[in-house]
Known about the structure:
Layout: E1 13-14, H1 17-24, H2 29-41, H3 44-48, H4 58-61, H5 63-68, H6 75-100, H7 119-132, E2 135-136, H8 152-158, H9 161-166, H10 174-184, E3 194-196, H11 203-218, H12 224-229, E4 233-236, H13 239-252, H14 257-260, E5 267-269, E6 282-287, H15 299-311, H16 319-326, H17 331-342, E7 344-355, H18 357-360, E8 380-387, E9 401-408, E10 416-423, H19 433-436, E11 437-446, E12 456-460, E13 481-482, H20 490-493, E14 494-501, E15 504-509, E16 522-525, E17 530-534, E18 539-540, E19 543-544, E20 549-551, E21 554-555, E22 560-561, H21 564-570, H22 572-579, H23 582-586, H24 589-594, E23 615-619, E24 627-630, E25 632-635, E26 638-641, E27 643-644, E28 648-652, H25 656-667, H26 669-678, H27 705-722, H28 727-745
Parallel strand pairs: 1-2, 3-4, 3-6, 4-5, 6-7, 8-10, 17-27
Antiparallel strand pairs: 7-9, 8-9, 10-11, 11-12, 13-28, 14-15, 14-20, 15-16, 17-20, 18-19, 21-22, 23-24, 23-28, 25-26
Amino acid sequence: MKSCPAGTASSEKPLSAIGLVRQFGAGSAMACEGIASVLGACSPAARRAENDLAWERLPRLLARPAARYGVSDDPAAAAALLVALRAYYALLVKQFLQRLVPDSNAEESLFPLPPRKSAAIARFQDRLATAVAAYDLSKSPEGLDGHCDVFKPLYHDLFPRPLRRQLGEYYTPDWLAQHVLDQVAYEGQSTKRLLDPACGSGTFLLMAIRRLRRSHEAKKDGNAGTLLASLPVGFDLNPLAVLTARANYLLALADLLPQLGRFQPPVHLCDSILHQRKESQFDYVVGNPPWIAWDNLPTHDREATKPLWEKYGLFSLSGVKARHGGGKKDLSMLMLYVAADRYLKPGGRLGMVITQTLFQTLGAGDGFRRFQLGPDGPPLRVLRVDDLTALKPFGDAANWTSTILLEKGVATRYPVPYFRWTEHAAKAKNGRHGSRFQQQAYLARPIDPAAPTSPWLVRPDAGDHQSLAIPSPGPSDYTAHLGANTGGANGVYWLEVLGETRDGVRVRNVAARGKHRVEGVERVIEPELLYPLLRWGGVRRYRAIADGCLLLAQDPATRSGIDETTMRARWPRTLGYLERFRPLLAARAAYRRYQHAGPFYSMYNVGVYTTAPIKVVWRRMDRRINAAVVQTARQGAGTKPILPQETCVLVACDSVDEAHYLCGMLNSDSVNRLVTAHSVRGGKSFGTPGMLNFVPLRRFRPEDPVHRRICCLSRQAHSAMLEIADERSADLAVEPFQQEIDRVAATLLPQ
Length: 751
């Protein structure tokens, strides 16, 4: 098989990313014709075969292309459209491969056409071949439009962002791939081998090829065999990604193809997690593994990979801790461990893009922070972490990006060098990452030295390591809990009171809230089980405002729903309302997993602390701790405890004075610096109940003048907030009290 790149006739046009999008992108005539031809040939079996995504999610994920190509929004039509999008893209990339290696049919099995023969597809293939023949492929597209991977913008244009996010496809910016290669110290050494086990369209491979070629040319080594022996290797389980990576690979070597003879790019279709290839180990392993939450993996993938999660100790929690979010795992952490174990040589270096939350999430990251390949396997030394969260390398994707550098065979030694990246206010015109970004040096270690897998404490590097020389900061004398959890059925339990009637109160459910959309109904129910509801948006520093009502048919003492016999005898109208939603409530995952023995309307995470009359409440998933004292509120003819929703965290207190002391301490700068040093600000783990394990708050002592001072200042701050609605004015009003709280609280906590 001889490689014959296209000629360089003057009539041929240069290959560019912008040109490809313009001619073949989503709005082009080519795309409309190609997708229509495949849709016409799609059999029902082929449509249903698109089972790597939940069937019911497809219409939402493909809403934009469905509207563009006139496809209905039912799951079957959406699945057919996905087949057509993938087939169209595959046909295009295969044409480029055929131009580069004309006598190769090796790519046909990667992404075959739908089984039904179609004259329309044949005609379209002829048109496509003519269009691709117009490009000059004899030169590497390096530097064109600033894109290393010329197909990446086209792929992004064809496949909508919601679909790519669902599949965990976060394609790596060129500068980020360069950074990872810099960290592992890969410079194209001819005696070293490099692997990307989740190569996607080949960004890391292309960057590595550039370095390899520069090194090869600098040595004036004309032996093509030397170059071939050290080419980087890629694996991926997505046929479209493998097709693209192979095409990019050939384009990167276009001028050398005549010398390379029978050459096939070393990019292989395989699942690098489940199916180990018979490859020797590599000196460098790099990449950006797929970021897919465990809950979003298809059922068969969860079952197939479960033994590996257990082998590497990545399932570290069970029971209550896992229920509170500690069990949230991401596929990227498993791929890193598998790649280090199977493909990395002893003493080799691994550099990967991973979620920063793995370093500072309580529970979910514990197993990852073992940094050992199983109970008896070799250790992994963390050499460096780069926190890129502030840069948002993947646009508006809601993730926390970091890179990690590991060495196999050596134990991690703390503190670990940790760098936070920010962007210069004035970006450099040349766009090079070295001039656009700045780094601030930090040091990281487990917040609890006695627990090596505890979340990392990250403090600025003072140059003498004294920035981390503080005692273990926890635990607190207080215990926190999440608010009432409806299990995704807010639209059933959240109610609006419309008025009183002779038989009770008329209510309307807030139907649009929650994971599950429910019908809107108005019913008359008994008022005894209605409580004031405090939502996430109602909580601010030193102020909490309840909004609406929560239906709580729950016995806090037994932590289960009130038995149906009692409900039928005392609150029959309320039970009748809940019966209307029985199928939905019985199908809730939290109910099936934890409370299936109780009534179908049982609510998760409700105890005596939930209905305590005096509480301190703050929001989780915030950027700092903003706490407020919460007492009772008027409900009907009397008063009832305010109940926070589960996106809030609460601590039940014995007295109002104690609540104000605790609230002031939680809002203090000392506590916030400690919490943000070991948590991901704005992340799902921020402000969770487990944070008090590492915040040494002592129990309120009424006789202590410092405690009484903080209590008094918190009361004054709450009073200052009462009459102020404007957010900025409110912050200014409490600032004098907050400054004094910060000063006093600093005397009670380690700095």
